[in-house]
Design brief:
With 339 residues, the chain is of the alpha/beta class. The strands form 3 sheets. Strands 2-1-3-4-5-13-12-11 form an 8-stranded mixed beta sheet, with helices on both faces. Strands 7-6-8-9 form a 4-stranded parallel beta sheet, with helices on both faces. The longest helix has 21 residues.
Length: 339
Protein backbone atom coordinates (compact mmCIF):
# COMPACT_ATOMS: atom_id res chain seq x y z
CA UNK A 1 0.00 0.00 0.00
CA UNK A 2 2.68 2.56 0.98
CA UNK A 3 4.71 1.73 -2.14
CA UNK A 4 1.61 2.27 -4.32
CA UNK A 5 0.89 5.62 -2.65
CA UNK A 6 4.52 6.74 -3.10
CA UNK A 7 4.38 5.71 -6.77
CA UNK A 8 1.17 7.65 -7.32
CA UNK A 9 2.66 10.71 -5.61
CA UNK A 10 5.80 10.56 -7.77
CA UNK A 11 3.71 10.31 -10.94
CA UNK A 12 1.64 13.31 -9.82
CA UNK A 13 4.78 15.38 -9.06
CA UNK A 14 6.31 14.55 -12.46
CA UNK A 15 3.05 15.35 -14.24
CA UNK A 16 2.76 18.70 -12.48
CA UNK A 17 6.35 19.57 -13.33
CA UNK A 18 5.89 18.63 -16.99
CA UNK A 19 2.74 20.66 -17.32
CA UNK A 20 4.40 23.65 -15.68
CA UNK A 21 7.35 23.51 -18.10
CA UNK A 22 5.38 22.74 -21.24
CA UNK A 23 2.26 24.80 -20.53
CA UNK A 24 0.01 21.87 -21.29
CA UNK A 25 -3.67 21.87 -20.50
CA UNK A 26 -5.41 19.44 -18.22
CA UNK A 27 -8.79 18.11 -17.28
CA UNK A 28 -11.68 20.39 -16.41
CA UNK A 29 -10.65 20.10 -12.74
CA UNK A 30 -7.05 21.03 -13.51
CA UNK A 31 -8.21 24.05 -15.51
CA UNK A 32 -10.15 25.48 -12.55
CA UNK A 33 -9.07 28.74 -10.96
CA UNK A 34 -10.21 27.76 -7.46
CA UNK A 35 -8.15 26.27 -4.65
CA UNK A 36 -6.73 22.79 -4.91
CA UNK A 37 -8.44 20.58 -2.33
CA UNK A 38 -7.69 17.03 -1.24
CA UNK A 39 -10.52 15.20 0.48
CA UNK A 40 -9.72 11.89 2.13
CA UNK A 41 -12.22 9.30 3.46
CA UNK A 42 -11.32 6.69 6.05
CA UNK A 43 -10.99 4.24 3.22
CA UNK A 44 -12.05 3.86 -0.38
CA UNK A 45 -14.45 1.31 -1.79
CA UNK A 46 -17.41 1.37 0.60
CA UNK A 47 -20.82 2.78 -0.23
CA UNK A 48 -20.93 5.47 2.43
CA UNK A 49 -17.75 7.15 1.25
CA UNK A 50 -18.75 6.78 -2.39
CA UNK A 51 -21.89 8.76 -1.48
CA UNK A 52 -19.84 11.50 0.20
CA UNK A 53 -17.65 11.61 -2.89
CA UNK A 54 -20.70 12.27 -5.05
CA UNK A 55 -21.62 15.30 -2.95
CA UNK A 56 -18.03 16.56 -2.82
CA UNK A 57 -17.70 16.43 -6.61
CA UNK A 58 -21.03 18.24 -6.99
CA UNK A 59 -19.80 21.11 -4.80
CA UNK A 60 -16.42 21.20 -6.54
CA UNK A 61 -18.12 21.64 -9.92
CA UNK A 62 -20.29 24.46 -8.59
CA UNK A 63 -17.36 26.31 -7.01
CA UNK A 64 -14.75 25.74 -9.72
CA UNK A 65 -12.50 23.80 -7.37
CA UNK A 66 -9.81 21.31 -8.30
CA UNK A 67 -10.76 18.34 -6.13
CA UNK A 68 -8.80 15.17 -5.49
CA UNK A 69 -10.93 12.62 -3.62
CA UNK A 70 -8.69 9.72 -2.65
CA UNK A 71 -7.56 7.63 0.26
CA UNK A 72 -6.24 4.26 1.37
CA UNK A 73 -8.04 0.98 0.71
CA UNK A 74 -7.42 -0.23 4.26
CA UNK A 75 -8.49 1.68 7.37
CA UNK A 76 -4.92 2.34 8.53
CA UNK A 77 -3.95 5.65 10.05
CA UNK A 78 -0.36 5.44 8.86
CA UNK A 79 -1.54 5.31 5.23
CA UNK A 80 -3.70 8.37 5.77
CA UNK A 81 -0.84 10.26 7.39
CA UNK A 82 1.46 9.40 4.52
CA UNK A 83 -1.04 10.63 1.96
CA UNK A 84 -1.53 13.91 3.86
CA UNK A 85 2.24 14.39 3.73
CA UNK A 86 2.30 13.70 0.00
CA UNK A 87 -0.55 16.11 -0.69
CA UNK A 88 1.31 18.73 1.34
CA UNK A 89 4.42 18.18 -0.80
CA UNK A 90 2.30 18.44 -3.95
CA UNK A 91 1.14 21.90 -2.92
CA UNK A 92 -2.53 21.31 -2.08
CA UNK A 93 -4.23 24.40 -0.67
CA UNK A 94 -6.71 22.58 1.58
CA UNK A 95 -6.75 19.03 2.98
CA UNK A 96 -9.92 17.53 4.51
CA UNK A 97 -9.61 14.16 6.25
CA UNK A 98 -12.00 11.68 7.87
CA UNK A 99 -9.45 10.15 10.27
CA UNK A 100 -9.22 6.48 11.12
CA UNK A 101 -7.40 7.43 14.33
CA UNK A 102 -7.74 10.94 15.83
CA UNK A 103 -4.26 10.74 17.34
CA UNK A 104 -2.49 9.01 14.47
CA UNK A 105 -3.38 11.68 11.89
CA UNK A 106 -2.65 14.69 14.10
CA UNK A 107 1.07 15.11 13.43
CA UNK A 108 0.60 14.97 9.64
CA UNK A 109 -2.17 17.58 9.81
CA UNK A 110 -0.05 19.82 12.03
CA UNK A 111 2.87 19.53 9.61
CA UNK A 112 0.56 20.41 6.72
CA UNK A 113 -0.61 23.52 8.56
CA UNK A 114 2.96 24.58 9.22
CA UNK A 115 3.56 24.29 5.48
CA UNK A 116 0.68 26.70 4.82
CA UNK A 117 -2.08 24.17 4.07
CA UNK A 118 -5.56 24.75 5.50
CA UNK A 119 -6.69 21.56 7.22
CA UNK A 120 -10.07 20.33 8.39
CA UNK A 121 -11.72 17.07 9.38
CA UNK A 122 -15.06 15.63 8.38
CA UNK A 123 -17.22 12.64 9.43
CA UNK A 124 -14.74 11.90 12.24
CA UNK A 125 -12.65 14.42 14.13
CA UNK A 126 -8.94 14.41 14.88
CA UNK A 127 -7.44 15.57 18.15
CA UNK A 128 -8.28 19.26 17.78
CA UNK A 129 -5.36 20.52 19.89
CA UNK A 130 -2.64 18.23 18.52
CA UNK A 131 -3.72 18.45 14.88
CA UNK A 132 -4.44 22.17 14.80
CA UNK A 133 -7.21 21.52 12.27
CA UNK A 134 -9.36 24.57 11.53
CA UNK A 135 -12.79 22.97 11.85
CA UNK A 136 -14.63 19.64 12.05
CA UNK A 137 -17.52 19.11 9.62
CA UNK A 138 -19.91 16.98 11.67
CA UNK A 139 -22.84 15.09 10.17
CA UNK A 140 -25.07 15.67 13.21
CA UNK A 141 -24.64 16.53 16.90
CA UNK A 142 -22.97 13.54 18.56
CA UNK A 143 -25.39 13.55 21.47
CA UNK A 144 -28.35 13.50 19.09
CA UNK A 145 -26.94 10.50 17.23
CA UNK A 146 -26.22 8.51 20.38
CA UNK A 147 -29.57 9.29 21.97
CA UNK A 148 -31.51 8.58 18.77
CA UNK A 149 -29.88 5.18 18.34
CA UNK A 150 -30.97 4.14 21.84
CA UNK A 151 -34.45 5.63 21.52
CA UNK A 152 -35.10 3.84 18.22
CA UNK A 153 -34.17 0.53 19.83
CA UNK A 154 -36.23 1.10 22.99
CA UNK A 155 -39.29 2.41 21.19
CA UNK A 156 -39.19 -0.42 18.66
CA UNK A 157 -39.11 -3.10 21.33
CA UNK A 158 -41.76 -1.40 23.45
CA UNK A 159 -44.02 -1.04 20.40
CA UNK A 160 -44.09 -4.86 20.25
CA UNK A 161 -45.31 -4.93 23.84
CA UNK A 162 -42.06 -6.38 25.15
CA UNK A 163 -39.92 -5.51 28.17
CA UNK A 164 -36.60 -3.80 27.58
CA UNK A 165 -34.84 -5.92 30.18
CA UNK A 166 -32.06 -7.98 28.66
CA UNK A 167 -28.65 -7.91 26.99
CA UNK A 168 -27.74 -5.65 24.07
CA UNK A 169 -24.77 -5.54 21.74
CA UNK A 170 -23.05 -2.72 19.82
CA UNK A 171 -21.12 -3.64 16.69
CA UNK A 172 -18.81 -0.73 15.93
CA UNK A 173 -15.96 -0.38 13.41
CA UNK A 174 -12.44 0.68 14.28
CA UNK A 175 -11.46 0.79 17.94
CA UNK A 176 -9.86 4.20 17.38
CA UNK A 177 -12.72 5.87 15.48
CA UNK A 178 -13.51 8.95 17.56
CA UNK A 179 -17.01 9.44 16.17
CA UNK A 180 -18.12 5.89 16.98
CA UNK A 181 -16.52 6.00 20.42
CA UNK A 182 -18.25 9.30 21.14
CA UNK A 183 -21.63 7.96 20.00
CA UNK A 184 -21.20 4.94 22.25
CA UNK A 185 -20.53 7.18 25.24
CA UNK A 186 -23.75 9.05 24.60
CA UNK A 187 -25.58 5.75 24.07
CA UNK A 188 -24.39 4.57 27.48
CA UNK A 189 -25.45 7.85 29.01
CA UNK A 190 -28.94 7.58 27.50
CA UNK A 191 -29.33 4.00 28.68
CA UNK A 192 -28.23 4.85 32.22
CA UNK A 193 -30.58 7.82 32.44
CA UNK A 194 -33.68 6.48 30.69
CA UNK A 195 -33.46 2.71 30.15
CA UNK A 196 -31.39 1.21 33.01
CA UNK A 197 -32.86 -2.24 32.43
CA UNK A 198 -30.93 -2.44 29.15
CA UNK A 199 -27.57 -4.16 29.80
CA UNK A 200 -24.70 -3.71 27.36
CA UNK A 201 -22.36 -6.54 26.46
CA UNK A 202 -18.76 -5.67 25.49
CA UNK A 203 -18.94 -4.04 22.07
CA UNK A 204 -17.37 -5.53 18.94
CA UNK A 205 -14.78 -3.80 16.74
CA UNK A 206 -14.49 -5.66 13.41
CA UNK A 207 -13.00 -2.59 11.66
CA UNK A 208 -14.64 -1.68 8.35
CA UNK A 209 -14.78 -5.36 7.36
CA UNK A 210 -18.26 -6.62 6.58
CA UNK A 211 -17.37 -10.30 6.63
CA UNK A 212 -15.66 -9.98 10.00
CA UNK A 213 -18.58 -7.97 11.37
CA UNK A 214 -21.01 -10.64 10.22
CA UNK A 215 -18.91 -13.43 11.70
CA UNK A 216 -18.48 -11.68 15.05
CA UNK A 217 -22.20 -10.92 15.25
CA UNK A 218 -23.04 -14.54 14.44
CA UNK A 219 -20.73 -15.67 17.23
CA UNK A 220 -22.41 -13.29 19.67
CA UNK A 221 -25.85 -14.52 18.66
CA UNK A 222 -24.75 -18.11 19.24
CA UNK A 223 -23.22 -17.26 22.61
CA UNK A 224 -26.17 -15.23 23.91
CA UNK A 225 -29.48 -16.96 23.36
CA UNK A 226 -31.22 -14.22 25.34
CA UNK A 227 -29.82 -11.31 23.28
CA UNK A 228 -32.48 -8.61 23.00
CA UNK A 229 -31.04 -6.12 20.53
CA UNK A 230 -28.08 -5.27 18.30
CA UNK A 231 -26.85 -1.90 17.11
CA UNK A 232 -24.58 -1.76 14.08
CA UNK A 233 -23.18 1.76 14.20
CA UNK A 234 -21.33 1.92 10.89
CA UNK A 235 -22.56 1.63 7.32
CA UNK A 236 -20.70 -1.70 7.16
CA UNK A 237 -21.58 -3.22 10.53
CA UNK A 238 -25.35 -2.70 10.40
CA UNK A 239 -26.02 -4.69 7.20
CA UNK A 240 -23.57 -7.32 8.48
CA UNK A 241 -25.44 -7.58 11.79
CA UNK A 242 -28.76 -7.73 9.96
CA UNK A 243 -27.58 -10.57 7.74
CA UNK A 244 -26.15 -12.51 10.68
CA UNK A 245 -29.43 -12.13 12.56
CA UNK A 246 -31.51 -13.16 9.56
CA UNK A 247 -29.27 -16.15 8.83
CA UNK A 248 -29.61 -17.25 12.47
CA UNK A 249 -33.40 -16.96 12.14
CA UNK A 250 -33.44 -14.63 15.14
CA UNK A 251 -35.01 -11.53 13.55
CA UNK A 252 -38.27 -12.04 15.45
CA UNK A 253 -36.42 -12.15 18.80
CA UNK A 254 -33.54 -9.69 18.28
CA UNK A 255 -34.24 -6.06 17.40
CA UNK A 256 -31.60 -4.80 14.96
CA UNK A 257 -30.99 -1.13 14.20
CA UNK A 258 -28.13 1.32 13.87
CA UNK A 259 -26.50 3.50 11.20
CA UNK A 260 -26.19 2.69 7.51
CA UNK A 261 -27.20 3.64 3.99
CA UNK A 262 -30.68 3.03 2.56
CA UNK A 263 -29.03 1.28 -0.39
CA UNK A 264 -27.30 -1.14 1.99
CA UNK A 265 -30.37 -1.74 4.17
CA UNK A 266 -33.24 -1.86 1.68
CA UNK A 267 -33.52 -5.65 1.53
CA UNK A 268 -33.38 -6.01 5.33
CA UNK A 269 -36.05 -3.37 5.85
CA UNK A 270 -38.34 -4.86 3.22
CA UNK A 271 -38.02 -8.41 4.57
CA UNK A 272 -38.65 -7.25 8.15
CA UNK A 273 -35.22 -8.00 9.62
CA UNK A 274 -34.83 -4.29 10.40
CA UNK A 275 -37.79 -2.00 11.07
CA UNK A 276 -35.95 1.31 11.07
CA UNK A 277 -32.47 2.77 11.32
CA UNK A 278 -30.69 6.09 11.60
CA UNK A 279 -28.41 8.13 9.36
CA UNK A 280 -27.98 11.52 7.70
CA UNK A 281 -27.51 12.30 4.03
CA UNK A 282 -23.89 11.39 3.19
CA UNK A 283 -24.12 13.09 -0.20
CA UNK A 284 -24.92 16.32 1.64
CA UNK A 285 -22.04 15.70 4.06
CA UNK A 286 -19.56 15.50 1.20
CA UNK A 287 -21.11 18.57 -0.42
CA UNK A 288 -20.92 20.53 2.83
CA UNK A 289 -17.30 19.56 3.43
CA UNK A 290 -16.20 21.13 0.15
CA UNK A 291 -18.34 24.21 0.76
CA UNK A 292 -16.68 24.64 4.15
CA UNK A 293 -13.20 23.99 2.72
CA UNK A 294 -13.78 26.68 0.10
CA UNK A 295 -14.90 29.23 2.70
CA UNK A 296 -12.00 28.40 4.99
CA UNK A 297 -9.55 28.96 2.15
CA UNK A 298 -11.16 32.30 1.43
CA UNK A 299 -11.20 33.29 5.10
CA UNK A 300 -14.96 33.83 5.20
CA UNK A 301 -16.37 31.05 7.41
CA UNK A 302 -18.54 32.81 9.98
CA UNK A 303 -20.36 31.49 13.05
CA UNK A 304 -24.13 31.16 13.09
CA UNK A 305 -26.75 29.65 10.75
CA UNK A 306 -25.45 29.69 7.18
CA UNK A 307 -26.59 28.84 3.67
CA UNK A 308 -23.90 26.94 1.80
CA UNK A 309 -24.76 26.26 -1.80
CA UNK A 310 -28.00 24.28 -1.83
CA UNK A 311 -27.85 23.60 1.93
CA UNK A 312 -29.69 25.92 4.32
CA UNK A 313 -29.58 26.33 8.10
CA UNK A 314 -26.09 24.87 8.42
CA UNK A 315 -24.94 25.49 11.98
CA UNK A 316 -21.44 26.94 12.22
CA UNK A 317 -19.81 27.04 15.64
CA UNK A 318 -16.27 27.73 16.73
CA UNK A 319 -14.34 24.70 15.53
CA UNK A 320 -17.37 22.79 14.23
CA UNK A 321 -19.88 22.84 11.37
CA UNK A 322 -23.00 20.69 11.75
CA UNK A 323 -25.00 19.37 8.80
CA UNK A 324 -28.23 18.80 10.75
CA UNK A 325 -30.19 16.34 12.90
CA UNK A 326 -30.11 12.58 12.22
CA UNK A 327 -32.81 11.05 10.02
CA UNK A 328 -34.93 7.92 10.47
CA UNK A 329 -35.32 5.47 7.59
CA UNK A 330 -38.03 2.80 7.42
CA UNK A 331 -40.25 0.93 4.98
CA UNK A 332 -42.27 4.08 4.28
CA UNK A 333 -39.41 6.27 3.09
CA UNK A 334 -36.45 4.06 2.21
CA UNK A 335 -37.23 4.12 -1.52
CA UNK A 336 -37.22 7.91 -1.49
CA UNK A 337 -33.43 7.94 -1.05
CA UNK A 338 -30.94 6.76 -3.65
CA UNK A 339 -27.71 6.84 -1.63
Amino acid sequence: MRRNIRTRACVQIIAIACCTLLGCGGSQENASSGPRIGMMPKLMGIGYFEATREGAEEAARELGIELTYDGPHLDRSEDQAQQVSEWTTLGFDVIAVAPVDPEGISEALRDAQRAGVTTLTWDTDANADKSGRSVFVNQAPNEAIGYKLVDVMAEGIQAKGESLAGNYLIVSGSATASNQNTWMEFMKQRIAEKYPEMKLLPHLTPNEDRQRAQEQTAEALAAHAELKGIWGITSVSLPAAAKATRDAKRAAQVYVTGLSLPSEMREYVKDGTVEQFVLWNPVDLGYLTIQVAHRLHGGNLKNGPQTMGRLTNVEVRTGEVILGPPMIFNRDNIDDHRF
